[in-house]
Amino acid sequence: MQQIEPTYLRYVYDGLSRGSISSNNPTSLPIGFIGVFEDEFPSSMPLVERMSILNRLAIWALLKGPVSIEMVTEVLNEHPDNTKSLIDTYSKWFNSPEPGKYVLYHDRLRTYLLQKLSEHEIQELNETLISYLEKALSDEKGDESELYALEHLSTHMLVESQLDNNYERFHEYVNCLLY
Q1: Sign (positive/negative) of CA torsion 109, 112, 118, 119?
Q2: What is the 3-state secondary structure (H, E, C) of 96-109?
Q3: Taking the model in full, what pTM does it have?
Q4: pLDDT (tens digit, 9 = 90+) per residue, 43-91?
Q5: Are 106 and 7 in contact (CB under 8 A)?
Q6: Count of CA atoms in the C-beta half-sphere (13 A) of 170
């Protein structure tokens, strides 16, 4: 038997439970795994709203580990209620491996979200994240942001350099750590 993606099964189970999917109507099922994600962004959604949500979720896709709502709020420069609302709206896409910290639950979801953006948009989001993490390191507060930066900033800079954007910064950062 062909292995079925657990996310797809969860979507079907939840849809059957809520009545939004009928077991007698197979056309109500999304087409494959990507269809599950596409259903969250219907064509009737205004483009500005869709892009705003995708950009905010893409920050979560770029993150390399679980972080708090407060940290993402600072990165996105938005009100904590907006970040909390995003997680509540898309709660089935998040795991909480530690109390008060969240991470997107699946690499396919990360890939899907990042593919919806242009290379330039991804570079801008990654640059926003890098700038925030560099500031966290210089502030030396010993908080979550600084700890995350110590663990993952080099990876974010590597992504930036692979996109042919600011290789020198990555090179300086790595060499500074070595000496």
Answers
A1: positive
A2: EEECCEEEECCHHH
A3: 0.74
A4: 788 989 999 999 999 999 999 999 999 999 999 999 999 999 999 999 8
A5: yes
A6: 16
